[in-house]
């Protein structure tokens, strides 16, 4: 098998291997642990590795062999951007909902990708069955491709493919923002399930695809000398995204500590929201019951306390409890619980416990399970960091 190791092909190899290796690892783990999110992430990485392989093999000389290797470059489905959008969207849904499974209603999202795959299959079958040996279209090709080789490579195919991707990127970002609201409404500790890296990934992928798209359009109207060398940098950027996605995704453990059941829903219309608010039963009575439980039983000391657990203590359902907290205290569940934890920390600081243990140790005793969450919640309630609060209030630390 010919492979010219040079600067351009060689530097793309690690990215290709990274994507391929982690795809296999995630496929195996996804099957072993029945984790759909791992399987979908594996497909995302595999398709990105295949896309990088296109430029890697091109620089390795496969275009210039003028034999079966060159034909492979024309007929293998390297251009798979139309698959990326749906896979990214459903990866997010499976990551944020441990019970997510594909249903019939979801298959429509893969109609367009399957159509593009069908075009690739058609050009391969027709050209190899009816047009081989391939005609020599110009001196450079030497008969390595048939008349249908570029069937899926016209400007309309690219516009549809990129348009589909950006549509799914848009609804993925929208769903991610809804997920951030969901975890604040349902969990008191969100550090391990915030998945902040997903937000960074969305913008990184968006930037990379925009670069690919703009450069592709420019090449259709402006002749750029050695354009394939310039586009190589875009593939390097894609390789960096592969590294980020594979490592961050591998260590993301949905439902490892919390049971995630997020489902993107349409926002309520204003009239519906008002009607729901008017129907809140005996709000003041429920507020008193909740405050009594919080003071007497101190459930906020449990680091992984969630809305469902607290609703069971109150002998009600999560929906009603969420409404009580939202409307009665003008807070989401996360802020409501962490305010109690911060106040408990302050009581211990006033009692001088910082003289015998660390601030973080006190925070853990009061229900926090991460330094970042503690600092963020403390500053949100008091306007200062814990250390600044101690200095301001003249409470010496150890």
Describe the structure.
With 398 residues, the protein is mostly helical. It has 2 domains: 7-251, Rhopdopsin 7-helix transmembrane proteins (Up-down Bundle), CATH 1.20.1070; 295-392, Arc Repressor Mutant, subunit A. Helices cover 66% and strands 0% of the residues. It is elongated, with a radius of gyration of 28 Å. The model is unreliable at 267-279 (pLDDT under 50).
Architecture (CATH level 2) name of the largest domain:
Up-down Bundle
Question: How many strand units?
Answer: 0
Q: Distance between termini? A: 68 Å
The helix-strand sequence is: HHHHHHHHHHHHHHHH
Main sheet: strands, sense, barrel: none
Rg for CA atoms: 28 Å
Q: What is the helix content?
A: 55-70%
- Kindly provide the name of the CATH class of the largest domain: Mainly Alpha
Helix/strand-derived category reads mainly alpha
Give a quick precis of the structure.
The chain is mainly alpha-helical. The protein is 66% helix and 0% strand.
Describe this protein with a few key phrases.
2 domains; 0% strand; Arc Repressor Mutant, subunit A; 398 residues; Rhopdopsin 7-helix transmembrane proteins; mainly alpha; 16 helices
Reconstruct the topology from this structure.
Elements: H1 7-33, H2 36-59, H3 68-75, H4 81-95, H5 111-130, H6 155-186, H7 196-221, H8 227-251, H9 270-278, H10 283-296, H11 307-313, H12 318-329, H13 333-350, H14 359-365, H15 371-382, H16 386-392
């Amino acid at each position: 098998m010919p492979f010219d190791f040079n600067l351009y092909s060689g530097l793309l190899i690690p990215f290709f291997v990274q994507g391929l290796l982690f795809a296999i690892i995630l496929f195996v783990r996804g099957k072993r642990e029945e984790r759909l999110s791992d399987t979908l992430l594996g497909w995302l990485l595999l398709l990105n590795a295949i896309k990088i392989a296109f430029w890697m093999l091109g620089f390795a000389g496969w275009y210039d062999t003028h034999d079966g290797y060159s034909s492979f470059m024309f007929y293998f489905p390297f251009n798979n951007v139309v698959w990326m959008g749906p896979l990214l969207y459903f990866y997010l849904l499976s990551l944020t909902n441990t019970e997510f499974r594909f249903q019939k209603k979801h298959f429509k999202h893969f109609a367009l990708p399957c159509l593009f795959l069908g075009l690739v299959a058609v050009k391969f079958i027709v050209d190899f069955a009816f047009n081989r040996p391939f005609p020599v279209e110009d001196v450079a090709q030497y008969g390595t491709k048939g008349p249908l080789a570029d069937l899926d490579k016209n400007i309309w195919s690219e516009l549809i493919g990129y348009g589909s991707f950006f549509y799914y990127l848009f609804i993925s970002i929208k769903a991610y923002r809804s997920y951030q609201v969901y975890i604040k409404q349902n969990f008191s500790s969100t550090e391990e399930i915030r998945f902040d890296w997903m937000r960074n990934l969305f913008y990184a992928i968006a930037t990379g695809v925009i670069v690919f798209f703009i450069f592709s359009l420019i090449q259709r109207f402006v002749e750029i000398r050695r354009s394939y060398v310039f586009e190589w940098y875009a593939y390097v950027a894609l390789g960096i995204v592969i590294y980020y996605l594979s490592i961050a995704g591998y260590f993301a453990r949905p439902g490892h500590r919390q049971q995630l059941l997020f489902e993107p829903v349409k926002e309520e219309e204003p009239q519906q929201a008002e009607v729901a608010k008017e129907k809140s039963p005996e709000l003041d009575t429920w507020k008193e019951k909740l405050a009594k439980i919080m003071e007497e039983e101190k459930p906020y000391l449990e680091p992984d306390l969630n809305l469902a657990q607290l609703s069971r203590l109150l002998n009600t359902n999560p929906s009603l409890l969420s409404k009580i907290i939202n409307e009665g205290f003008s807070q989401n569940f996360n802020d409501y619980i962490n305010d109690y934890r911060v106040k408990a920390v302050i009581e211990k600081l006033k009692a001088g416990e910082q003289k015998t243990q660390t601030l973080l140790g006190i925070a853990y005793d009061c229900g926090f399970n991460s330094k970042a969450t503690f600092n963020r919640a403390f500053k949100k309630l008091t306007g200062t960091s814990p250390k600044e609060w101690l200095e301001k209030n003249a409470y010496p630390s150890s």
